[in-house]
Amino acid sequence: MTTTTTTAHHLRTIALHWTDLHQALGDRPIHGAFGRGLRDYLRTLEQYDREEVAALRALERDPAQIGERPVPISLRVYETMRTVESALIELADQTAADVQRPAMARAPRHWPAPDRARRDALADADATDPRRWRYTGRRTAPHAALWLCALIEGRPGPWRPLTDAHRARIGRVAAGALHRIETTLDTSTVTATLTQRCACGSVIEIHGGAGTPPLARCTGCGRTWRAPEPAVA
After folding, report:
1. What HEC string does 147-203 produce?
2. What letter would DSSP give residue 58?
3. N or C: which end of the chain has fewer CB within 10 A?
């Protein structure tokens, strides 16, 4: 797999996983939140919280209702979404500033009317080209990831080709963002080396992630250790 293909795969996977992150963020369904961005999603959650607080206010004086109120969202998932979305949008902003060409200017007023009309139509179409990255409006992680993916794959659009430096930076950010998402969702496999050695003197590696229980294995003698099964009540 080439560097370009790898980066494009990372960016597409980020966009696909964004719905999974929204689902993992909280148990309560927020209708109509897809594609609106993290801040809109959280504002909707805050509205739900205000309504819930108002409904529960009368119960607060009842000693039978005293207890810890559950957190409405997963802070670990929220932090991942906030960090990844900020990084991708900033990367898209900076990349667009470097490679996206300005929109075509409209015709001067002194041009003949037919020529001015044709030029203005082209300028309007260029300014509203949906392939353009914009600094207002739809600024979400999936949109940024897919826009960067189009640049990486060399698709036609209102931009100049990426430099090697651009490609390298997009590749680094995409790989780091996907790793963080997969770690949060527990969909990636991880291998780590323990400082403690086996009785035979060899290194012990731990393999886990992707929803599987961790497994420790000696790289020398092959002995394995598994986490104990939880006790059944």
Report:
1. HHHHHHCCCCCCECCCCHHHHHHHHHHHHHHHHHHHHHHCCCEEEEEEEEECCCCCE
2. G
3. C
